[in-house]
UniProtKB/TrEMBL annotation:
Residue ranges of domain Toprim in the record: 250-309
Alphabetized Pfam families for the sequence: Toprim_2, Zn_ribbon_DnaG
PANTHER family: DNA PRIMASE
Keyword Zinc in annotation: yes
Keywords assigned by UniProt, alphabetized: DNA replication, DNA-directed RNA polymerase, Metal-binding, Nucleotidyltransferase, Primosome, Transcription, Transferase, Zinc, Zinc-finger
Family matches, as InterPro entries: DNA_primase_Znf_CHC2, DnaG_primase, TOPRIM_DnaG_bac, TOPRIM_dom, Znf_CHC2
Full protein name: Toprim domain-containing protein
Biological process, per Gene Ontology: DNA replication, synthesis of primer
Organism this protein belongs to: Oceanobacillus profundus
GO cellular component annotations of the record: cytoplasm; DNA-directed RNA polymerase complex; primosome complex
Key word Kinase present: no
GO MF terms held by the record: DNA binding; DNA-directed RNA polymerase activity; zinc ion binding
PROSITE patterns: TOPRIM (PS50880)
Length: 309
């Protein structure tokens, strides 16, 4: 079984490594003002197209998109991603290589710790498989496709954001998304941690349904349902994509809804995230700081507020 490392160790490793020194062992990196430029090794680059930022230890190619979601393979902008793809090795091997380069010993996990890491990995693998099944359901559910299309959500949006449909008989663990459009919730690293289900029709239809249910003594139908034990206050929808653009712009745009984020990203505002509600929690503020946001544009009910750190 491959070794897995705690996220805290990986973050420490990335912070302590000097990306310019590491990359210079493979390619020529030249200082240009406050930044550095290099010939990109991930495409046939003729002029220096790769920008290397030593302040936050990131890289980005302005020609092929390496170091961002715009690239087909090199989607992360950190030093571990560079080592992984320049050497064509696994993520774990690149972590071990970087630790050796900077002289940081690998953590020794106890059997209990390794079991916990393995359990977490298995959970993410399960969520990924379930997400794929939900997405296949959506492709065959015309009512949901029509609703999303009416909201301006394209088929590419559905693929990028892995939207799905819960179906009539989901597993008992996912009963809250039964017969609902499914929005996977990604953590900071892009792993699916939960699902939120939305009714596949508009607010007016939902209002009529709840009036009828009330008169017939039936239960109220909420617009959204989350998985049990999921706390939205610890996450920002879209952060797994937006973090790179937030870091570059030093600015985050915050909206309330899931589809708001998808629409803004489609129109080029890829530093947008959603609180999935009105409140902005302390945990969400910490995520914004982690992504490098120095300024926040808060959009609420048609009003715009500017918040500076």
């Amino acid at each position: 079984m491959a070794q897995h490392y705690p996220s805290e160790f990986i973050e420490e490793l990335k912070q302590r490594a000097n990306i310019v020194d590491i990359m210079s062992q493979y390619i020529q990196v030249e200082q240009m003002g406050h930044s550095h430029l290099a010939i990109c090794p991930f495409h046939d680059d003729q002029t220096p197209s790769m920008q290397v930022n030593s302040d936050n230890n990131t890289f980005y190619c302005h020609a092929c998109g390496a170091g961002s979601k715009n690239h087909s393979e090199v989607t992360a902008c950190d030093v571990i991603s560079f080592l992984k793809h320049i050497n064509n090795i696994t993520f774990g091997e690149s972590v071990e290589m970087l630790a050796s380069m900077v002289g940081i010993p690998l953590p020794q996990l106890s059997p209990e710790e390794q079991a916990a890491v393995n359990q977490r990995r298995d959970y993410f693998n399960l969520m990924s498989r379930v997400s794929e099944a939900f997405h296949m359901n959506l492709c065959e559910h015309q009512r949901s496709l029509q609703y999303l299309g009416n909201r301006g959500i394209t088929h590419l949006d559905m693929k990028v954001w892995k939207l799905g449909y819960g179906g009539k008989e989901p597993h008992s663990n996912f009963i809250n998304v039964k017969n609902r459009i499914v929005f996977p919730m990604f953590n900071y690293h892009g792993e699916i941690v939960s699902f939120t289900g939305r009714v596949p029709f508009g607010q007016s239809v939902l209002n009529e349904l709840n009036v009828e249910n009330k008169s017939n003594g039936k239960s109220f139908v909420p617009k959204y349902k989350d998985m049990k034990n999921f706390d939205k206050r610890n996450h920002l929808y879209g952060m797994h994509i937006a973090k790179e653009y937030i870091r570059e712009a030093k600015t985050a745009v915050i909206v309330e809804g899931w589809t708001d984020v998808i629409s803004l990203h489609r129109h080029g505002l890829k530093h947008a995230v959603s609180t999935m509600g009105v409140a902005l929690s302390q945990a969400q503020i910490e995520l914004l700081k982690r992504a490098g946001a120095k300024k926040v544009i808060l959009m609420r009910d048609g009003r715009i507020f500017f918040i500076f750190s």
